[in-house]
Write a structure and sequence with these properties.
Radius of gyration: 32 Å
Oligomer: single chain
Order of helices and strands: HHHEEHEHEHEEEHHEHEHEHEEH
Largest sheet: 5 strands, mixed
Number of domains: 3
CATH architecture of the largest domain: 3-Layer(aba) Sandwich
CATH superfamily of the largest domain: Periplasmic binding protein-like II
Number of helices: 12
CATH class of the largest domain: Alpha Beta
Helix content: 40-55%
Strand order of the largest sheet: 4-3-5-12-6
């Protein structure tokens, strides 16, 4: 007999009949009518070529063939039920799970210190590996299950992905603390006159800064252009140049490099930072736990 010819529901009816010994009790247990149980039994008799259950004064009594089938069928249904309803638990305190998170260099600077401090307390065996969202195909990596979460401004992750807003942040001007602009603030005229460090970081959404400034008719004096944010702090610390950066990057860089900030005279849309995960991981307990940690630590 080929399994494709067997309706699983017939085996469920068989199991209930054997358990209860009466059509009425089996029907009540299954939530169907008595004729429904009788019809299923008739189909199963035809399929297996045996009466299976005989009606007696003591109820429905199994034939020897049915008695031989009863335990294997009950075991198989029990195993299937357990498999379909299993939820793999995740115990962060004892786990050695290795997570992969996609972020850019700004994200590494802002997210990792606080995230790792939180993991030290809650999940000392858990490890994190980061990959730069600017140098890989984030969609492909997450679809293939190679990346657990991504954080940042990633407008390309829509269909097939979930996201949760973490925060919005303005852009600010940043420069060394003893810069002349630290006393006066940054006017539009001073913004034009200053020498700038520009950051061309593809895939981060930072390109909107250059676009908005250009649309505003302001031509900056671009003295230095870099492909990432990590060089910005040391360069500003040693020169009179200024840069336009996200507020939370400025907060991270100000103290270590002796920098100060001022509102940007050009109105630039806020940077929207989300945490993303693929639909395949939506109900996975470990992924759910890590997302919750991220939200608790960083969501406004």
């Amino acid at each position: 007999m080929d399994l494709k010819d067997v309706d699983l529901n017939l085996l469920v009816v068989f199991n209930e009949l054997h358990k209860h010994g009466r059509v009425s009790a089996a029907a009540e247990s299954l939530g169907i009518s008595q004729p429904g149980v009788s019809n299923a039994l008739g189909r199963l008799r035809t399929l297996l070529g045996d009466e299976l259950f005989l009606r007696t004064s003591r109820g429905m009594v199994p034939t020897p063939y049915a008695q031989g089938l009863a335990q294997p069928i009950a075991d198989a249904l029990g195993a299937l039920h357990g498999t379909l309803n299993a939820r793999v638990s995740f115990d962060p305190a004892h786990s050695e799970r290795a997570f992969v998170i996609g972020v850019n260099d700004v994200g590494e600077t802002y997210f990792l210190p606080r995230l790792m401090r939180a993991l030290d307390a809650a999940a000392p065996g858990v490890t994190i590996r980061t990959v730069r969202t600017t140098s890989i195909d984030v969609r492909d990596e997450m679809e293939r299950g190679r990346m657990d979460l991504a954080m940042g401004f990633l407008p390309g992750l829509k269909s097939g992905f979930f996201q949760r807003l973490l925060f919005r942040q303005p852009y600010v001007c940043i420069f060394r603390q003893d810069h002349p602009l630290a006393r006066s603030g940054v006017s539009a005229r001073q913004f034009r006159a200053a020498e700038h460090v520009a950051i061309v970081s593809e895939g981060t959404g930072h390109g909107v800064v250059d676009e908005v400034i250009e649309r505003a008719g302001i031509r900056r004096r671009l003295r230095l252009t870099v492909p990432h944010f990590m060089a910005v702090g040391p360069v500003l610390q040693a020169t009179d140049m200024i840069a336009v950066v996200p507020r939370r990057f400025a907060d991270c860089a100000s103290k270590p490099f002796g920098l100060a900030t001022a509102p940007c005279p050009v109105k630039i849309p806020e940077s929207v930072i989300n945490v993303f995960w693929h639909a395949r991981n939506h109900r996975e307990p470990a992924n759910q736990w890590l997302r919750q940690v991220v939200v608790e630590q960083f969501a406004d």
